[in-house]
């Protein structure tokens, strides 16, 4: 990534970048990559005290003063991020509501308010040139193993919105994910509508991660993402239908690749008004189990799932691959490479 052609860089090295959700798995990787390129970064978090470890971690790797924290306890309040992004040439909004609450009347407006609040703060600032939003594959579609279909940059998961507000909303984690997906869908739709209607003086790009696996910066200080937590349950020997169904067949991506895609969406001048699909490759639960068995031969895992239908979805990830190539990544990280780093972290924590 250190060899980005100067002629293609929209934000010169040395200009400040603000990243919300900086203490999370993806947000911290994004901060780390930006710092490695020479950009000062301001991480937006709900609590400076709980995120102090991140300052210490990044300061140990980069020059003191390049990274700082800004505290915004409630991003749903209009103008809450004005001060946090003041002076920033670029903003990456990663922070997400992962409460998995079941009330769409509460969760969906909250996700929209957070997204639109920071976007409007960026638009009215005098310095912000580019804004990147972290969406979700759930805002596009849910996996449908065995079904041939084609997603496009115009595809949105309108069905999940109907389900979230219906009497048929499931309970538990499945229902919570449904409400979350509805919120991410509506928030991204609102963001694009606002952008086209108001034409702010900044470029908007959206990154759409498929289920995102991979190691975190600091396993001692950070929790794992929802996708990684489900993987960990499988690695720990869980044989429940819930875990199997969550991993049965889908596209995936590595957290470092997705983070690099965010950096490209922010910095590359030619990338404008894009929905960048972070879909690396297809996988099934049996692929994952096979890799786990090879990486941890002394552990016992559930048996393979019988008659798994593969994900047959065609996705528009060509532009994303091209962005990664410009940043020095010739290919996406494989499932084997991704899981190897994750299993290494889990094994070290278990010692």
Automatic annotation (TrEMBL):
One protein family per Pfam: Epimerase
Ranges where the NAD-dependent epimerase/dehydratase domain occurs: 17-262
Keyword Cytoplasm assigned: no
Gene3D superfamilies on file: NAD(P)-binding Rossmann-like Domain (3.40.50.720)
Keyword Oxidoreductase: yes
SUPFAM superfamilies: NAD(P)-binding Rossmann-fold domains
Lineage: Eukaryota, Fungi, Dikarya, Ascomycota, Pezizomycotina
Lineage: superkingdom: Eukaryota
InterPro entries: Epimerase_deHydtase (IPR001509), NAD(P)-bd_dom_sf (IPR036291), NAD(P)_dehydrat-like (IPR050425)
UniProt-recorded Gene Ontology molecular function terms: oxidoreductase activity, acting on the CH-OH group of donors, NAD or NADP as acceptor
Signal peptide: none
PANTHER family on file: ALDEHYDE REDUCTASE II (AFU_ORTHOLOGUE AFUA_1G11360), NAD DEPENDENT EPIMERASE/DEHYDRATASE
Membership in a protein family: Belongs to the NAD(P)-dependent epimerase/dehydratase family. Dihydroflavonol-4-reductase subfamily.
Protein name: Aldehyde reductase II
Keywords, alphabetical: Oxidoreductase
